[in-house]
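Worked example 4.2. Below are the chains of a multi-component assembly; read each line carefully before continuing.
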Amino acid sequence: MRGTFKMKTATENLTGDAIAKPVTNSVRTLELFNEMQQAVTRHTDSLFGRLMVWQWLAAVGAAVLITPRTWIGTHSQIHVHVLAAVFLGGLITALPVFMAWRHPGLVLTRHTVAVGQMLMSALLIHLTGGRIETHFHVFGSLAILAFYRDWRVLISASAVVYVDHLLRGFFWPQSVYGVMTAPIWRSLEHAGWVIFEVTFLIISIRKSLGETLNVAERQAKLEDINETIEQTVTERTAELTREIAERHQADESLTHSQAQLAKAQSIARLGSWEWDVVQNKVTWSDETRRLYGYSEHDLGADLNHCLERIHPEDRDKVRLAFAEALRSGGPYVCDHRALLPDGTIRVMHGLGEVVKDGKGKPVRIIGTTQDITEAERAEAALRRSEEQLRQSQKMEAVGRLAGGVAHDFNNLLTVITCYSSMSLRQMDKTHPLRKNTEEVQAAAERAASLTGQLLAFSRKQVLQPRIIDLNETVSGMEKMLRRLIGEDIELCTLFDPEIGHVKADPSQFEQVILNLGVNARDAMPRGGKLTIQTANVTLDQRTRFRNRDLDVGEYVMVAISDTGIGMTGEVKSHLFEPFFTTKGVGRGTGLGLATCYGIICQSDGDIRVYSELDCGTTFKIYLPRVDAPVTPSRDSSDLDALPEGTESILIVEDEAAVRRLAASVLRSSGYQVQEARDAIEGLALIHAKQPFDLVITDVIMPKMSGKELYDQIKVIAPRIKVLFMSGYTDDALAHHGVLGPELCFLEKPFSPSRLAQKVRDVIDGSKGRSRSASKPASNGNGSLNGVKH
Amino acid sequence: MFAHPHCPCTQASIGELNRLLTRCQGPVAVHVLFIQPKGTSLDWTETSLRKSAEAIPGIDVQLDPDGAEAHRFGAESSGYLALYNPEGKLLFCGGITAARGHAGDNAGENVVVTLLNGQNAELKHTAVFGCSLFNQCAAPSK
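Applying the procedure described above to all two chains together yields the following structure tokens:
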């Protein structure tokens, strides 16, 4: 209500006669004008609130001071003016002061104030006995009332003044003019002066209101400008905030990109660099600094300083590459080695591009360096793998050839060996053909040995491993080795008494020792020393030799060292290849060391060679150590008398000669023998006839293999024992050439006695798995592998 | 002039008396009598008003014990002035202020000045604004 009232008042003031300036349409101007006017009004209310109280007190004071008492002779009493000042003055003052205090700003308040002020003037005039000077209070009051800047207030005050003067001038002139009588024109004159003053006060009020309006307009405009400025500032601030955010985001993106680039460089081990040719300053990325092991202070160094990190042997190459790039303007490409502060050597691949100035003069080279050490290693490993693959393929081809030959060849050798053996049994020592027959038998044995070596290096032979003590195995060969190497060579053995056990085929291992011994002998034509040492070895890290890894673990090592002529690196690189020999034609087959390598590798071990020219050679054989006890061995030497029996035996063999031979040998030993040409026929006989005590079967046969026949027999007649015989199994029977413990095997070629003994052993169920092959034999000329070292 | 020592309005009469004397051309004997009612002490009469009167040169200030002289001259209110010519003829009597305690030009003062300057004046009497000199008498106007 008050706000509405104030607005109405201001509007009235503006639209009234007090305002000469045109009314602004600005609502804000009106608001500001009203606010200012209201502030002036309230301030004036407050002023009058204090002034009227002060006037009242002053009136009381003046009355008390001037006419405190009235005298009648010697008697006196409080002057009536004092009472009038106190009570009438208080009455006049109370209402306006209350309104100014409680309701400042109201129109009613200022009119109340105006009326009260004029009445106070009248009282003061009366109290001063109508003194003309006191009338100035009226003019002063009107001037102060003009503070309201409301002409209506002046009208109210003027009206009160006029009525007061008129009435008192007429009825009580002494009160207002200090005279007993006063003419009417005196009141009119007073009214005239009041109107005179009020007129100019109203003019002044109009001007003041106009100025206030101007101030309001300027304030409104200022606010408008401020608002515009603030809006501009706000918008600009928002833009700046957005720009800052965008810049921050861009900075973050840049930082992220730089981090990604640095990370990418780190991952790729690819650093960037730049050579300022003019100033001869080289700068680089962090990755380049890490790659070359530069320090922070090296940044910006000259090229020669930077080249100190290049391997000395490659510096000239790098300089030449830079010089060539600068000369030709072509790319800088240079693989080189970096020599890091800790002595590490890394292989780097450098690439660069020449930057020229406007005249075509090279000014900079910008490039990259990538650590390709691992790639180089991988490439080398790949090359080794390819070499290994080629080697494996070669071995596989040879093995396939050997297997193919061995199967048929062993059958033939079996026939030759058996018939020659049987013939020798029927000849006395003076028989004219005995010598010839013995030669035939010896030739067959050498041929069997060759076949065995072919299968050995190609790892196609059937191993029958067992737990052995290498000290015992090697010491058992000492006598044979001494006879083999001759008197010019000293044989020295150094056995570790705490040597562990290994799982290996003892006869094959003997073959390895024999081969290495023969090679050592050939490497020491003028005599020397052959040392065989055994020891327990612990490998605490994975090692590699000739592309073959040895895992971490416990091993038993056998080292065969000679003091011979040694061998070159070229010879070492081909040492274990089949058919590689440094011996003359007819002296070596080139299969000895290949056979050793095949046997050892097939036994999950490794053989490594260390050789120095004119100093000697050492072969070290590593076989995994096992904790199991040694498996007891039995003497499998040929017996002069064939074991005999009466059991029923079925022989399944597709090779008729071998089948007939075996049947003949066994019948001669008393057995009841049935023959089958293949496994199908064999199964038919088993189903049709009485159950056999033993089935002897070849392994590789058409229609059905010996292993499949074995599986069928285990189903239909598990009581029947089975003995395999073969010269080459092609993994049909053995896993990677290692025969399972439940299978009995007779290796071709065999002799009649070995066949009879093996059959007896299997039927009796004792040591049926013992190898029936002969002990290792030389190839006739004493050299089994043909490598002279 | 007869004056009540404590009348606040008589200060203006004393002031007007002082002023009119400055406007007179001939010699004049001025006597101001301050009444001393019966039963009052001299201290009762020693007021600022009396001192103001005594300060005016050429004025004879005396006490009027019990208002005897005032009764003789018919004065009832403080500020009553009676003007006699040298022959003892009363020329004027009344107040020389326009209003109560109101200094400034007034009819009584003008008449006195006119008479003192040897001229004639028709007005012979004006109102006296002041306290009553006697207990039984009321002032003309208060």
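Take a moment to check your reading of the output against the notes. The two ends of chain A are 126 Å apart (CA to CA). Chain A has 21 helices and 21 strands.
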